[in-house]
Structure formats: structure tokens, C-alpha cells
């Protein structure tokens, strides 16, 4: 059940950081959805961790498995979805994938909280914003009545909602988009979680509001020493918020690195493609490039590079060998899963390095 | 605009609707094919008596005067007298006799589906694609597909012979009741009287409510399935709200919103459907009275009953707006944010 049983699958960010500094550790997470005809490996053996007070980015196109990762961490995967029992998600010393539903309820909101993409549909339309914040307070902090109302007003003030004492009694539809997302953040912060998962928190908002919400999240993080998992498809946002970045493609993490080396020297062809598709990195006059095609649905165990059909650098072996995360570049934390690496080897040697050899590796 | 302002507006809107409905009723009665004088006199009457009656009824006055008097009488709730069905009897008295039976029937045929159909539908929605869901959904479809008149006849014949069929006499069970007779509605506050009246109306209410029960179940199931996948439900779970509270607090209230018009809409249908069921079960309620008045050309009785039906529909409409206003805070909100 632990990493030792699966030594063949080296966690991407395996480094010297002692586990006491880790707020959250995801090891070899696999989330499978069983449909009538096939199995969708929505998250296919990913590993990463978040240190205390750090923001880790999870970036990729839609369909890459980012949101399923977030929901897997919070134990929100429901039938026909299932987390492979060999997966581990460590939070406060426990493997929370083994938690019962009621154990999970006690850490949701309290230990790990989440901010969702669309603030309007995230708030229940028939209850006041205050009611929904107080609900969290009464569940985890046993605050009720006036004390809870006062705390809710404080929280709304903390996330920058003016006239909070009045707004606490208003309904979500009376809030503007940006204010709604602030209210959702207030709700997520209500019980002082250690880890905050932000799933595309700015995607549904205007550009100016986006910047405000990001500033707010960064301020809150600094104040509370919060660990954030920031999920987005937007490389521009990632550059602003993240300390370390994991690039996800078709259920796998294809590259992971601290933010500077990732943007300065992206190694994986997919990451390079993503970076070329953000406007700010373009020298003026160039046409904005996009990666053609769509993320494939991972409906069988990886036996090739899933990016191969779209990869400008793909070669023959790419459709025969599934690449494994490999150290690339100067930074020890910089890994990529691509048959072109390690750079020091010839292509044949590199392919041999990735090929599941005789060590009993999977598939 | 606040929710309650909006509600008030809706209520005020009902005034012109009552006016319009009553006017249409007048047109149908006076300009239509029914000749009240002929109806009173019957086929054998002679022309002189006929003319006298027309005169005394004011039927030869200009139409607009007739209209003004008609409207004045109804809007001041002077419902007049029956001319044919029970000649000389005041309409209010007739309504006093026939009305409670219909209300009693209507009340239970709305209530039973709500307390049977809704919970079944919600349960099926919470446990989709399980055996219980299939049984409930299939049963609901079959139940809804059975026509009222057929179901009513089957009920009557099975219940009257229940002794011979099952060795169990429905008529003697708990309290003695008749099966095909108007329910005795006196002394309802006494438990045995109440039970008797309820038992007497139960088969008819089940028949009349059968379609509603099926509908409410089906739509309740869909509504729960929809709210189940709503983002606010996921958010509630992500906050650590226990499963049971997610269902009761976050799902059900939202699931009720699409059900409000379904339930009130069925209340309208019951107005029409009750004539048939009342006839089979011999309940002799308003539906029966209206039917008699219509085939006998009892113009003032028909007009007054129509007016009462209009008031009832408007009342149901107001109730619907009231329920919306209570359940959904977005009511009357005209965008902006
Ligand atoms: S393994 Fe091959 S196809 Fe995959 S990213 Fe590398 S070069 Fe491209």
C-alpha cells in the first residue's frame, strides 16, 4: 500500500523534504471510472506533494484529470468512479483514502477546503450567504447563533466584501460574480483549513476580477500560512501564483518543476506547446500557437506516450513505450516524462531507460 | 423589487383576471344557445307563459344592462337562486350542501399524492437505477396510465365485493361506511366521525389523485437527480456537511421548486376530473351539481358556480405564487448583478 511496495513508480517530487514539512502528499493516485464499455483512467498514477505555505500548480487542458484529482483528494469520487486502493493521499500523517465517509466529513472544510470554478452555481440559491458560511462554522467549530453570525461577518470582511453586516443576510443572486467568489472563499476559510484546493477559481470571472481574486488568495495565504493546490488551464495564472508546477496530460503528470525553471526551460513538448499558447510569452507579431487536437480519453493503461498523436517531436518508439518521469535540467526537482530524456543519452539509450524492463515494473 | 412586493403584484393581477373570466362566462351563457326561459318551462309550455317568464327574468332588457347586473351580483357575492335543478333554492345553500363534499374529496386527492408520490419520487431519485427505483418508476407509470373512470369502476366493484373476493369486508373495516354514497361530514372533530369520513372518501381520492401521484413521483425523481449533480451540493459536501443534511437541507428545497407548478396544476385538473369520479362514487359534490345545472340549462346556477370555480382557480394561482415566494428567494428578482 505504500511507496515501498511500488518502488518502480518513483514519486515525481521525491526529494529530501521531510514529511513533516508536507501539508499534503499524493502518491501514485489512480482514479478509475467504470462505464459499461470501458474503464476511464481519469487519473493514472500521479504523485506530487504540497509543502506548508506553498502554492502548487496543477495545469493542463480540460479532460486532463485535474478536477478529478481535486475531488479524489476530498473523497468526493462517487460510483462509478473509484480510487485504486494502492493509491495514497497523506494528510496529517494519515492515508485519507482509507477514511470512512464520516471520517472524511470531519476533514472536509476543516482540514482541506475547496474553492470551485463557478461561484454562482457553487452557492445554494435558496439560502443566504451567511447561512451557508454559518453552516460550516457550526459543523466544525460548534459556533452558533450570534457568535456564528459575527464570525461570518468577520470572514466576509476578511475577503474584502464591503458592508459585510448587511450582505451576510443576502442571497447569492444579490452578489456580483467577483463578490460571489469572495463569499465562496470566505466559506472555504471559515474553518481555518490547512490546505485549500482552488479548482479554476478565476476562470468564470472577468479579467480584472480575476486579478483581484488571485491577489486575495495570495494575501490570505501569506497571512495564514495556507498550502494551496491551484488548478487551472491558464499558464499565465500559474506563472503568477505557483511555487511549483505539475503539468498534467491525459491522467498523468508529464512535467513537474519549480516555476522558474519550468517557464525558463520547459522540457516536455507538451509544456512547450502550452507555453507557446499564452499571449504574453509571444514576441510581438508572432501568431499565437495552439496545440492542435484534443486530450485523448485514457481508456486503457498507458502503453505509449499519450501525447504522441499531437507531439511535434514524436518518433516511432513513442507509440510503443510509456515514458516515466525522469530528471531533466539543472534543478533536481525538475522531472519530465518524455522519451527524449535524459538528454545525456542517445535516443536508443533513453528509450531503453524508459522501457519497462525486467525490474517487474507495471505493464 | 423584493419577494413580497412581487407576490403582492401577482395577487393584484388576479383582479382583472376574475373580471375577464366572469365576463366570458356571461357571454357564453347569454349569447350562447341556452334559453333559460325555455328550460324553466319545459317542452310543454305555451308562448304566453314563456313571454311572461322572459319578461320577469329581465331577458328582454338590453344586453349591457343584463351584463351590468350580472357582474354586480356576482362581484358582491349575491349568487341568486337556482331556476331549474332545485327551483327557488338559493345558490349559497346549494353550495353549502354540495361544496364540502367536493372540498373534502379534493383535499385528500391532493394530499395523498403529495405524501405518497413525492417521497417515493425523492427516494427513487436518491437511489437511481436500483431495484427500488425500478419498482417505483414502473409502478408510477402503470398507475398513471390507468384511466380514472376505469380505475373508479374497478375500485367500486372490488370494494363492494371485498367480502366475497378476499374474505375481508371493506365496508365493515374499522368504521362502518358505505362505498357509493356521499360521505357524512358532520362532526369531523370526533375521531370516529373523521375516520369514517376519510375512509368513505379514500377510494375516490385515490382514483382522482392517481395521475397526480404518478406525475409527482416522476418529476420528483428527476428534480432530485438534477440537484444531486448541482455544484452547490458538491460544495456542501466539500464543506464537510454530512450526507443526510446535504439531502434534507441542500437538495430537497431546491428539488421542490419545479414541483410547485406540478402540484398546483394538478389541483386545477381535479376541478374538472371530479365530475366523473363524483358520479361513479355517487359523492354528489359540486362537480355533480354543475353537471346537472348545465344539462338542465339552469343559467343562474351555472353562472354562479362558474364564478366560484374562477375564484377557486385564482386562489390556487395565488397559492402557487405564495409557495414560490416562500421556497425560492430569487422570485421577483430582475437580474442586475
Ligand atoms: S515521448 Fe515522444 S511523443 Fe511523447 S512527448 Fe516525448 S517526444 Fe513527444
From TrEMBL, chain A:
Keywords: ATP-binding, Cell membrane, Ion transport, Membrane, Nucleotide-binding, Translocase, Transport. It comes from Halorubrum ezzemoulense DSM 17463. NCBIfam families: oligo_HPY (TIGR01727). GO terms for biological process: peptide transport. SMART domains: AAA. InterPro entries: AAA+_ATPase, ABC_Ni/Peptide_Import, ABC_transporter-like_ATP-bd, ABC_transporter-like_CS, Oligopep_ABC_C, P-loop_NTPase. The complex is composed of two ATP-binding proteins (NikD and NikE), two transmembrane proteins (NikB and NikC) and a solute-binding protein (NikA). Its EC number is 7.2.2.11. It comes from the Archaea. GO terms for molecular function: ABC-type nickel transporter activity; ATP binding; ATP hydrolysis activity. This is Nickel import system ATP-binding protein NikD. It is found in: Cell membrane. SUPFAM superfamilies: P-loop containing nucleoside triphosphate hydrolases (SSF52540). Residues 24-275 form the ABC transporter domain.
UniProtKB/TrEMBL annotation, chain B:
One of its GO terms (biological process) is transmembrane transport. It comes from Halorubrum ezzemoulense DSM 17463. Keywords: Cell membrane, Membrane, Transmembrane, Transmembrane helix, Transport. Belongs to the binding-protein-dependent transport system permease family. The chain crosses the membrane at residues 12-29, 103-126, 147-171, 191-211, 259-281, 301-319. This is Peptide ABC transporter permease. It is a multi-pass membrane protein. InterPro entries: BPD_transp_1_N, MetI-like, MetI-like_sf. It is found in: Cell membrane. Residues 99-320 form the ABC transmembrane type-1 domain. Its main location: membrane. The lineage of its organism: Archaea, Methanobacteriati, Methanobacteriota, Stenosarchaea group, Halobacteria. One of its GO terms (cellular component) is plasma membrane.
